[in-house]
Specification:
Blueprint: H1 4-8, E1 29-36, E2 39-46, E3 52-55, H2 60-63, H3 66-80, H4 85-94, H5 106-125, H6 134-142, H7 154-165
Amino acid sequence: MHKKTPKRNGAKKSDLSEDEPKESYLGSWHANLIYIDRKKCLLFVNDKTLFNFIFPDISRAQIKELSNIFRVNLECILAAEGIPKKAKTKIMSEYASIKYTNTNSKSILGSMNDLAYHYKYLIQSEGGVHSYAVPSIIKKLNHMPMRALEYVFPIDALKAFCKNAT
């Protein structure tokens, strides 16, 4: 996960893992703190598929529970997207333990900046971070073609990955 986010949840530089992530099913995610309407929001993006979601209006106390917030929201969003139970179980088991590392991909950071812009615009146009439309905005952005994926939708990349890996 992105190095600035752990700093905000009280982690020190010594808490960052120096190990490269081992090969895994779905792999690494990046997390970044963004501001929408002066509210802190966490943006999560998967490295392999650019599948993404946002946790709006996060408090300091909640940031300290970053790993749990990630797991709970990921599981809900996978279910909402209709990911088969077998694939969802495999994905979730991969994140039973989460390590934080430094960011190492300019491509992912560029995609995250693009997604952050879209989240800000769409959330503000739908009434703000407490809008009932946030789940539909997450779905919309996972059904948007991404240049880094050669214009494939993140949800399609995720579903293809799940199909090939099971």
